[in-house]
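INFO  loader      accepted 1 record
INFO  loader      residues=122
INFO  predictor   begin
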Amino acid sequence: MQEDRPIYVESFSYQQGLPSHLLESRAQCHVVDCRGLPNPWHRAGLRDLPGTDPRMLEYFMAEAPAKVEELMTQASEAIGKGYTCILFGCVHGRHRSVAMSAEFQRRLCAQQKEQGNTATPI
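INFO  predictor   done
INFO  writer      dumping tokens
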């Protein structure tokens, strides 16, 4: 990972399309498809929660831990290949993509802090 290089991490809805502000900026974007994760919309007690709620990540880690790690690895490898923008997408952009983008940003911040880098995911 290059030092002091900003990395953009964002979630989006496939129904709404890719975020135009990032595409127009000509950022090198890599899309991570979160639709393979179980959909919390179909689970009572999770449907109304935002993807940022800690219970959402707990649900994904309990139901599909290997898939979560696969998505995290895919995003990390994209940064290693020079991508400066990681987009996590799911159908509505409310649960899966939000939870995965937040978790990736958390991991990326921890990794950069550990390596002494000053760049912060945006």
